Amino acid sequence: MARKLGIFFAIFCILLTSSLADWNILKEYKTTNSGLKISLKNYCESWRMNVELHNIKDYVVIPQECVSYIAKYMTSTQYKVDSERTIDECIFHLSTNCILGKDRKDAWIFDIDDTLLSTVPYYKQNGFGGNKLNVTSLEDWISQGKGTALDHSMKLFNHLKELGVNIFLVSSRKEHLRSPTIDNLVHVGFYGWTSLILRGQEDECKSAQGFKAEVRSKLISNGYRILGIVGDQWSSIEGLPSAKRTFKLPNPLYYVA
Ligand SMILES: *[C@@H]1O[C@H](CO)[C@@H](O)[C@H](O)[C@H]1NC(C)=O
């Protein structure tokens, strides 16, 4: 009985705090659970930080009050600097931790969306992560091949080509988007990869993480040594088998499990 009451009380507290949080949204300033008075920017900055730390997972939309903050971040110099730093660390890892084999079996894995190609132009027109994802409209946009190149990633891409490392593009994009994906990549300057691996029909019921781990497993059994992965989603870098090192680019816009 006491336990039941305890559970009831806990649920009551959760409901109470969430309704208070909703009420606070209306004000420019918010109060944290400990009573600290903070600005909306503090609140949204901490939300973004905890997304990147992977403490916040599985969100379907950005908290409504942070949509304009995230829109600002994704189009800011800070986003560029953060991304460039990720790529610089990849290049540093290659130069310090990796001795390339003469058998040409070294490999690197890239995501596509918001790793090589930016989907920010799409999200700009579609609520900037504040609306639930409409797969049909995103795929319509993808099939127009309008993704813009992320220049920082192109630097790493071309560096890997010069080193003779095999580049694998592993994406949750579906197989029917293969031809617009290739056109888009080549058009903005990405070419010379070893293989582009998309989600076939048999992969559609798998999670992105499960699908990508399976791809890595196949690459390893084909004798490849995966020196690194760079992606904007945790599902691209978590799970086993992994790579020598993994690198996470910033992307608070959406979450892919
Ligand atoms: C999703 O996008 C498609 C294509 O733009 C549109 O026809 C459809 O109404 C949208 N669905 C929702 C639920 O908004």
Automatic annotation (TrEMBL):
UniProt KW keywords: Glycoprotein, Signal
Signal peptide: 1-21
GO MF assignments: acid phosphatase activity
Full protein name: Acid phosphatase 1
Superkingdom to which the source organism belongs: Eukaryota
Family: Belongs to the APS1/VSP family.
One Pfam match: Acid_phosphat_B
Glycoprotein listed as a keyword: yes
Alphabetical list of InterPro entries matching this protein: Acid_phosphat_B-like, Acid_phosphatase_pln, APS1/VSP, HAD-like_sf, HAD_sf
NCBIfam families according to UniProt: plant-AP
